[in-house]
Amino acid sequence: MARNATRFRLPLRLGIDAAMTLLFVSALAFRLTGRAAHEWTGVGFIVLAALHVGVNAHWYRSLFRGRYGARRLLLAVTNLALLCGMVTVCVTGILQSRHIFGFSVHFDGAGLRETHSLAAYWSLVLIGFHLGLYWDRITGFFPKATEHAKLCGGRVLPVSAVLLLILGGVWASFDRDMGSKLFLGFSFDFWDPERPAVLFLAANGAIIGLYAVVAHHIR
To answer: Would you say 90 and 99 are in contact if contact means Cβ atoms under 8 Å apart?
Structure first.
């Protein structure tokens, strides 16, 4: 019974996480989608984030149990930092809501928007770290594909794919001016409307991939 429950929870968690990531990256496209769509995407993300916390509540309950090694400490710091970033994004987003909650009349301001943007882009980086730290568990859900890669003498992700992720992530980091976004050098986002929207999603996905590779190899 416990094994069956675990088999059910893992695909549920992976599905929620994949949908959360897609909604989060889509929400970053505020300049492309408009404010109303941005708010509704954010509400969808909040719902999934609450489900994510609920499904993974056992992890929070075990925080003060057992001993901490370097890997467990890195996991805890990353997960808690990501939680803080996501909570900040959600709270500041609700306070700035104009179409759904209508709180912007009372709380909207440059400082709040700046905090929202800062937390969002730090969360983007931390999502990558989170993914990289749990990569082995994720690939463990696909045993046939993993075993096939081993039988062929390869890896789950070939070296060429890893290099592509790194190069794409580095390019995207410069293209999106991530240094300024992470350290308050630039408060608000911009995307040339003449560039394809899919490139925006790909660039942010590449940034996640870059930090996932880094986290996977430093753990």
So the answer is: no
Mean pLDDT in residue range 185-206: 82
Give yes or no for a contact between 132 and 215, defined as CB atoms under 8 angstroms apart.
yes
**Residue-averaged pLDDT of the chain:** 83
d(C-alpha 42, C-alpha 65), whole Å: 34
**Tokens linked to 77:** 């710091």
Triad 40, 114, 122: Cα angle to 5°: 80
What pTM, to 2 d.p., does this model score? 0.85
Average pLDDT over every residue of 176-200: 81
CB–CB of 20/52 below 8 Å? yes
| Size of the chain in residues | 219
| Cβ(16)–Cβ(55) below 8 Å | yes
Amino acid at 167: L
List the one residue out of 180, 171, 158 whose CA is nearest residue 210.
Answer: 171
Q: Could you please report the per-residue DSSP string of 181-205?
A: HHTTS--S----TTS-HHHHHHHHH
Q: Token match 């949908």: residue?
A: 19
Could you tell me where the DSSP H helices lie in 28-109?
A: 30-33, 35-55, 57-61, 70-95, 104-107
Q: How many whole angstroms from its chain centre is CA 146?
A: 24
What gap in Å lies between CA 188 and CA 202, rounded to an integer? 20
What distance in Å separates the CA atoms of residue 61 and residue 58, rounded to the nearest whole number?
5
